[in-house]
Structures are given as structure tokens and as C-alpha cells.
Amino acid sequence: MNLEEESIKKTYELEDSDRARKVIKEASEKLGYRFQEMNSIAAAYDGPKEAIIKNGDELEAYREKAQRKIEEIVEDE
Questions:
Q1: Alpha-carbon distances, residue 15 vs 4, 50, 57 (angstroms)
Q2: Do 57 and 64 contact (CB within 8 A), yes or no?
Q3: How far is the CA of 4 from the CAs of 7, 9, 11, 28, 39, in angstroms?
Q4: Rounded CA gap, 52 and 66, in Å?
Q5: How many Å from the N-terminal Cα to the C-terminal Cα in the chain?
Q6: Cα–Cα distance between 11 and 27 in angstroms, integer?
Q7: Burial class for 57, CB neighbours closer than 10 Å (0-12, 13-18, 19+)
Q8: For residues 11 and 32, what is the distance between their CA atoms, to the nearest angstrom?
């Protein structure tokens, strides 16, 4: 599946990989998404589809709801 064709993609570059992990984990918990990680890559799933992907210090959000939640979390700190 080509995620970019399925929905809007927005990329967020954070300070480091640990910060990106905390943000994706918090966003997935607040949105009720399933969270899965392996090494420096993590994903939050909205049902069977990826909603947020973390690779290193970057987050890619593919759902508007996920984008808003990431922006809220980043702005609150």
C-alpha cells in the first residue's frame, strides 16, 4: 500500500529519536491506536493502516487526527 496516495502525509523532525518515540507513544495512547516498535522504527496503527510512523528522529503522520495530536503534544511542552 502506498501511504502517500491513501492520505495526507506530514513530517515532523524532533530533537532526537528518544523524543520522537515519546511523542508517537503518547499520541497512540491518546488516540487509541495500536503501538508497535522495533529498534529505531515504530508505528501507530489506526485499525489495519499505519497512522504514524517513526524513523529515527522523524515522525510521519498519515491521518489528520494524528497530525493534530502530534502538534498538540509538541506545542504543550
A1: 24, 23, 7
A2: no
A3: 6, 6, 12, 20, 24
A4: 7
A5: 34
A6: 15
A7: middle
A8: 21
Radius of gyration, CA atoms only, the chain: 11
- Span 23-64, pLDDT tens digits: 999 999 999 999 999 987 999 999 999 999 999 999 999 999
Model pLDDT, residue 6: 55
Packing angle between helix 64-76 and helix 17-31, nearest 10 degrees? 120
Enumerate the H helices of the chain as residue ranges: 3-6, 17-31, 64-76
Beta bridge partners of 33: none
Cell of 2: 502506498
Q: Is 37 helix (H, G, I), strand (E, B) or coil?
A: strand
